[in-house]
Amino acid sequence: MAEYRIAPLSRLIEQFQHLPGIGYKSAQRMAYYILGLSDNGVKQLTDSILDAHRKIHMCKVCCNLTDQDLCSICRNSRRDHSTVCVVENPRDVVAMERTQDYMGTYHVLHGVISPLNGVGPDQLHIKELLARIKGGKIREVIMATNPTVEGEATAMYISRLIKPLGVKVTRLAYGIPVGGDLEYADEVTLSRALEGRSEL
User: Fold this and answer.
1) Alpha carbon of residue 59 to chain centroid
2) So where are the chain's domains?
3) 3-state DSSP assignment of residue 84
4) Most CB contacts within 10 A, which of 25, 53, 118, 183?
């Protein structure tokens, strides 16, 4: 059986295995699904991937993903622009928006401080957050990094930078389990965490 190998199929499976959370069996299923698509289906899929890769970039204010200069949240005049919720990645924005309770804006760090993984403060979008705060319109920053060791360290590091600027810094309450990720939390848990946030 080890001799049965189709090189292009093996390469396709290998590419899918690079995706987060995808093991060999899932990668194999995805590859066979692709092979079963019509030429038009494959073209639509590849065009969508290329289009997203070329057009999506970071919002120049909050660093969330967008296909315009400003994301839809930063453009929305009905949002409370005096409150900023700091999250680790764009998926966390989607999770928070599902609660329909939060009407402020966001700031996406694109990671957390993790010396073991070679990630320091300079590799995150902290400077952009500080620049927004120095603009003078922000009254509260909600630290909504995940309740992990790295997330806690990042929240504490940023709060120490913000406090001298005279802005209130709060942390989401622990309705979210320690070690959990925001994107997997349900709406009720996120709502309670948001309501019970505490000052850092």
Assistant:
1) 13
2) 7-55, 58-199
3) strand
4) 183
